[in-house]
Amino acid sequence: MLEKQYIKLKLTGKTKDEVLKELVEVLNDGGALENKEEFLKVVKEREATSSTGLEEGIAIPHGKTKAVRKPAVAFGRSEGIDFDSLDGEPSKLFFMIAAPEDATDSHIETLSKLTNKLLDDEVREKLENAKTEDEIITILNEEKKVEATNIEKREGFIVAVTACPVGIAHTYMAADSLANKGKELGVEVKVETNGSVGVKNELTPEDIKRATGVIVAADKTIDMDRFAGKKVIQVPVKQAIRAPKELIEKALNGEGEVYVATSSGQKEAPKKEKTGVYKHLMNGVSHMLPLVVCGGVLIALSIALSGIKAGSGADVTNPFFKAMLDLGATAFGLMIPILSGYIAMSIADRPGLAPGLVGGALANTVGAGFLGGMVAGFAAGYIAKWVKSWNVPEGLKPIMPIFVIPLVSTALVGVVMYFIGAPISGFMNMLTDVLKGMEAGSVFLALILGCMISFDMGGPINKVAFLFGSAMITQGVPTVMGPIAVAICIPPISMGLATMMAPKNYEVGEREAGKAAFAMGLIGITEGAIPFAAADPFRVIPSIMVGSGVGAMIAAIGKVADHAPHGGPIVLPVVDNKLMFIIAIVAGSLISAIMVNVLKKFKK
Questions:
Q1: For the chain, which terminus, N or C, has the lower number of CB atoms within 10 Å?
Q2: Within its chain, how far is the Cα of 324 from the centroid?
Q3: Per residue in 17-33, pLDDT tens?
Q4: CA 130 to chain centre
Q5: What angle (nearest 5°) sits at the alpha carbon of residue 383, between those of residues 380 and 388?
Q6: What stretches of 437-507 show up as alpha helix (H) in DSSP?
Q7: Model pLDDT, residue 484
Q8: Smallest Cα–Cα separation from 291: which of 340, 332, 337?
Q9: What are phi and psi of 489, to 5 degrees?
Q10: How many CB atoms sit inside 10 A of residue 275's CB?
Q11: How far is the CA of 508 from the CAs of 286, 503, 527, in angstroms?
Q12: Alpha carbon 400 to chain centroid distance?
């Protein structure tokens, strides 16, 4: 699988993308690929899931696709580049694995042997110093002689499961790492691999029954109900490669949380809060996305086909288009409850769903927007998780997940959301008074309104700015609504542009949502950018606020006036100074798109 034509002793790439492309070219020139562009796309999608940069300067990018003609491994050596490795150090030795969709067990076993060798310090040192391609192949084909040692056997039996999204490299490296460390420590360890060729070395009920502890090093869903009643330690698959001794010692000492089975059989073992917040958030965002897309597109189509009327905004009178608008609005109405509900479900499993959905609905009722929905989701999840931990009599345990936990959690979340409703209302009134005190048509007022519109996209601050602009139209001052109309469309348009300009910064689902967001922006639906803001608020929200603020100021300078309480290019027929209106939208959108993509590169 590793031939001379697949070896490049000196890689010239200075960035991660350049090295990936260079190694793909090596495989393609050697005849291993059917379609190099498709294979590179698959490899990058794998990297987007989690970096394949390991410790000690090793990186193993890989992909499994029909774009591979025959299984092959490319080797490349570099002076060191940033590859988002586990230890934060530059990566120097690169093994790119190309596996066809019909890869056999023997191919995967060969790759497992390769990854196992890379755990050896001596092998890595030899690879760094090798002078020729033949020497590289010789080093990797050498069988290391293992000297017999008298290791004192320790009490305990550990079972483990390893699994990564693709199931090629990390799955087997983690398994070898745990098994080898178990031998060193004198501990009996059995590891099941959930790889691309299926489950190997499967754990039996007898194995699990007599196990002292369970380690699950997985980045995808596996069968967990078999571990019911056992203390489970769950970590990302890389952690088993990085710290096998620590995991084995913890399992021997009885650390971990007792796993409680669910009827679905799909629940993952408990996550550590310090690493789980982003996963919980993305669980809510991923379930919310379809509602944003279908609801936004339906609303956009109904308004686009009906038009805008001066003084009243969207003029949807046709019964069919009105039904389409109502359907889209219904989908939008479910957006925040679904975000909140699935955040809570990710934290506390199914008992968290009901309080999360109710909390999201209350966030809609009190006008807290998507930020309020996120607060409700996390509150509901952690409250449900806390109630779930109560030590109750045996007779109550069967009804805890379906009755006690949802009931108590929902009641407490209701108290929390109603408690924050009054402050939000007072804050909105205060903001309205402040805006009334500013001079209509001023550039500073436009900046403030633009930032308010994009801050929470449909939330309380957005509503204050929008209602203020709408009220000024009735008083004969449409120049206030002009900058607002610009700011309304910049968040979704800019996020759509951002996904097109730098698609590698976004997941596949986000790239699809970007197209829908762009269309929503043209019709003045700010909420199209909510999924991006919810998934990455600290980069997205400042970016869209800057772009919207700048766009609104340009509109104010250009004396743009909007005679309809709506925004986006669709209101162009009722806008004064149309050229400046378009310039303001384009400038603000480009600023936001460029800024968010620059910030995306500075990941923690």
A1: C
A2: 31
A3: 899 999 999 899 888 89
A4: 40
A5: 120
A6: 443-456, 460-474, 481-501
A7: 92
A8: 332
A9: -95, -15
A10: 12
A11: 11, 8, 20
A12: 31
What are the residue numbers of the active site? 62, 164
Rounded Cα distance between 549 and 484, Å, is 9
Token pair of 92 as six digits: 């120097």
Q: What count of other Cβ atoms lies within 10 Å of the Cβ of residue 185? A: 20
Q: Using one digit for the tens of pLDDT, what is the confidence trace for 119-174? A: 677 888 888 888 888 888 888 887 765 554 566 778 889 999 988 765 566 777 78
Which position has the higher pLDDT, 202 or 423? 202
| pLDDT value at residue 338 | 92
The two three-digit tokens of residue 565, written as one number: 């309480």
Mean pLDDT of 428-437: 74
Token pair for residue 49?
A: 């899931």
pLDDT for the residue numbered 115: 67
Q: Are 98 and 32 in contact (CB under 8 A)?
A: yes
Helix (H) or strand (E) holding 7: strand 7-8
Q: What is the pLDDT of residue 274?
A: 38
Query: 346 near 357, Cβ under 8 Å?
Result: no
C-beta separation of 215 from 223 below 8 A: no
Kindly list the distances between the CA atom of residue 387 and the CA atoms of 352, 362, 513, in Å, as whole numbers in the listed order.
10, 21, 36
d(CA 178, CA 159): 10
- Nearest alpha carbon to residue 351 among 242, 263, 287, 415: 263
Give the list of residues 6+ apart from residue 306 with CB closer than 8 angstroms, or none. Answer: 314, 315, 316, 317, 318, 321
- The number of C-alpha atoms within 13 Å of 561 and in the hemisphere containing its C-beta is 14
Torsion of CA 309, 488, 284, 52, to 10 degrees: 130
- State the residue for tokens 């968010």: 596
Beta strand 58-59 pairing with 91-99: parallel
Nearest CA to 140 among 183, 95, 108, 197?
95
The one-letter code for the residue type at 242 is R
Question: What residue type is assigned to position 572 of the chain?
Answer: L
Tokens of 253: 């000492």
